[in-house]
Structures
1.
Amino acid sequence: MEIVAHGLWAAAAAITARRSTKASVHVGWAVWWAAFPDVLAFGPQVAVGLWLRFAGSSAAADGHALPHVHIGLPLYPAGHSLLVFLLVFGLVTILARRIVFEMLGWLMHILIDIPTHSLSYYATRFLWPISDYRIDGIAWWTPWFWAATYGALVVVYVLLWKKGWISPARRRVCKLAESESAASR
Ligand SMILES: [Zn+2]
């Protein structure tokens, strides 16, 4: 799946979690963690490419917007591995002494990517580095599948909106201030 859809699914999940369980889940951080595997995979390349471009490097972009940079680190498989996720999630849970629910956005990203990539392009090696096992799923860029994804997202967000769970931040702050002043009375 692409990064925008990942972010939208994670935001919907985070909104549902905080509204239905009273858990303190920060929607913005959930979106960040949902984007994280692809930011990790492509961010450094884009950053170095931009830097080379604006540093006026003669390393020709050969017709591309950015010069092609190969970093040579297994960032894509690392960010898309359930084993790496569990390791990092476990460490963060121990260090933070709480479950950082927002990090489940990362888990969601991997689980969504497993069936939405085909063998021909970045099939998710979710057991990396132990196994290269992968699934030949439906590529997310298949037009009908992409349309269905966004159709489903529209349905989900309409449902969230109808439940009144998507309220402008300002109103939420006012409500919070109201309840705080009520509590201090
Ligand atoms: Zn991905």
2.
Amino acid sequence: MSIGDILSEGAGGIGGLKAGRDALVVMALDLALSVPGDRVLECKGTSFGVPSVHAWKFPGPIRASDVATLFSEGSDSGIDDVLNLGIDASMAFEIIAAINGDAIVPDSWMDSYGTELLDGTVPGIALFLGEPKEASVFEITECVGRGLIAILSGGYSKIEIVGENILKIGAEEALGINGLVSRAALKYGGAVAGNRTSMGKYLKKKPKLAVIHTGKLTVSDITAMFSAAAAGAFIVSDSPDLPNIPRICETSSKEMVAKAIANRGITFGNNKGVRFVSASENQRIRKADARLEFGGPDAPPSCEVAIACGHAEDGRTTTTGKDIQELEGGAHSLSIEVLVSGGVDFSMEQAIERRIHFALSRTEGVWHSGQRDNSWIRISSSAVENGLTFADLGSNIISDIKENFPTVAEAVEVVFTSDPSSASSKICGARERYGIRDRRLSEISDRDVDCFFTCTICQTYAPGHICIISPERPSVCGSVTWTDAKVGSEVNPGGPQRPFPKGHIIDAEKGEWTGANDIVRRASMGSIQRIYMHSVAKYPMTACSCMEVAAIVSSDRRSVILLDRSDTGRNPSGYSFSEVSDMVGRGEQHPGFMGIGKHYILSPGFLRGDGGIARISWMSSRLKSVLGESLRKAFFDAGISEAYFKIADENVAEDAGSLGVWLEENEHPAMLMDPIRL
Ligand code: SF4
């Protein structure tokens, strides 16, 4: 039987892959023996010799005599072995092409995109395999319209469709898809040739490959699928003969393309020019350049919340109220709910919720800060003019969550609510949910656990900062509690939140632990040697500009003034929130100033080393009402209920002098304490 006959046979699961891989390997070995052993093997049209070998085995030139040493044992007992079969198939296909002089997709095709394949300009590649269905033309057009490259193989290559981002190849050429995307990772990315770990890691991120297969499953199809899977692809097929392993899903729905894209974590700007790129993560959108604003000091409240629920409709985004294109320029309220179903539970919600920040702040023309009911979003005029919609944002959120919680987020749905009265009731519901989460955590103390967590999400714009998260010290952005970080690290061990042993205690009151000092010393390259987690004096913990609240020691050093980002009026510290954020928001340590999360104020650890909650002398009436009954309870739990009523606000003190008078007149407890020693 010829290799062509074997490849066109019907395939059932991994058996089909083995048959395809074995046929290709046997043919490659036979051909290699038929030519002189010292013949250097090179495919036409590429500078990478035999690209898959160059990428996965060794980067030097390979000779015919080397071929026998290249292939795996051919075992299919685990996911790694199965992916090895995919790499074997790609290498064998290219060796055959090199010896026979057959064409593979040339480097020049890849060079026509260059870095666009990796910088997010091209969000991903969709490989279509098998026999097309009626809706296929629509799905291909949809992919290309959203900026993806569509590679059409087999029956798909016969569809009468042409376009800039469409490449038609033969069914057998699809066997070399691994070598094709590997070349992009090598030439335009940082992947290390011949290093399987480096290749695997890089291709997991980009270029993002999704495979859509329809029709009868052949040996050729399944072998090409695993050539792609070894390069990080997610595969959807309507064939019931697929093997049941991760990275593959069977679906008969019309939404195969959407499922492949979402599960591969492909994210979009939109088809009119808004991009989704890491480079946008640092973007600032000045007020003058913003068309729309949600949350923040000048807009009605907004919220964002993730909800673990029994059934989310995967990939769906809905909007209640006006869409981005319909809203009048200015400030509005907005609720963003992310419904997630699968292996998720209540304890994972907040970790998932934080991805909203990540997805939005990476969308060009969108700036996002804060979280929960303290979120603040600006959308630039140019993004609105480019046609940005809530559906685009929802699509990015869904893809980001799928990518970061691949094992648990089976279905993700996003609901935007811009209708003011509906948004207001959604915000109330979200606050109840935040309250339940916070109450659960308040039962654990720093002493009860062996490890704390780090979070490095914000190192893109505060490279020297690393968040240390303990049960009594939630993150400075307020969105990551110790429980969230624990869940985040379990679900995504290589992700931004990681555990570390807290080490020995140096000062229980101030919250100084050897483990935390070691971590911060490393993150700051030695510029910060020690941190106090529960004191604003001497070695306060560092922050990034996501900080919700600035804690500032008063000019007489007797008390602490708390400002949040909505406090734009005068206050007794003499500093504005943004001045403090500029000072400490890049991971620098300034005794007397500390960035904190709002809910840290309610923690029993709050400034324990400085006298605790009794030190609070001033906060705005608005912040006080946001903390509500929980703040009153924190004073009650500390045994100083009366001190709650002695906190000054903007109605009684706008400068240091009037604050001093208020504190004396009201016999504030901080007046009886020693000054804070900075
Ligand atoms: S502020 Fe800290 S916890 Fe929050 S996202 Fe940034 S690094 Fe993570």
